[in-house]
Amino acid sequence: MLNPLLSADASKPRITYYDDAAGERIELSTVTFANWAAKTGNLLRDELGAGPGSRVGLLLPAHWQTAAVVFGVWWIGAEVVVGASRELDVAMAAAAQLAEAEADEVVALSLDPFGRPVDGLPAGVTDYATSVRMQADQIVAESRPGPALGARSVDEVLAASLDSAAAQRLSNSDRVLSTKVWDSDTALVDGLVAVFAVGASLVQVAHPEPSAMERHRATENVTVTL
What we know:
Blueprint: H1 3-6, E1 13-19, E2 24-29, H2 30-47, E3 55-59, H3 64-75, E4 79-82, E5 88-94, E6 103-109, E7 125-127, H4 128-132, H5 154-167, E8 175-178, H6 185-197, E9 201-206, H7 210-219, E10 224-225
Parallel strand pairs: 1-9, 3-4, 3-5, 5-6, 6-7, 8-9, 8-10
Antiparallel strand pairs: 1-2
Helix pairs in contact: 2-3, 5-6
């Protein structure tokens, strides 16, 4: 799953995130994104005991940190579970969704652009911003991964992602603008994994302001809009 990402141009923008409501923009190159994914994988494996066979729930919006979490989970051979579930080993939850997180380990993400922690965390909940920055930004990938998404193997998810990219006519030279949410397995594949699987670059916009979309397309040299 990670090979297409790691073989892409290290300096090329991999994901650019806008929040039009907050006026936020952040851009990560391939190497910087991979470092965040590695840090997340190390947090999950070394601090929270996750690995092959573990189920890691995403109670998160379409955000650059969510993307790092997804690939961090896959780096350690664990399974991504989109949304709330009662059978999670770890739940990665935005602060507003902590009440829905039911797991042996719960990690709260503030999603703050400056890395501020979540205020007033309940006892036993790990703060992502505080904990992830302490992790190494290199990782040894799991050689025998378990299921990756929806009980499908890594190879099956990668094949579905490549099929999705072909259906959406994406190539490694594309700069892809998207306002899509990642609220299901299919949405995650179509809106995130398919883009990365072919080596394309993603411009993800949250709370899109219609009047700003054309400016985003021009500023970011967008070639495809999902």
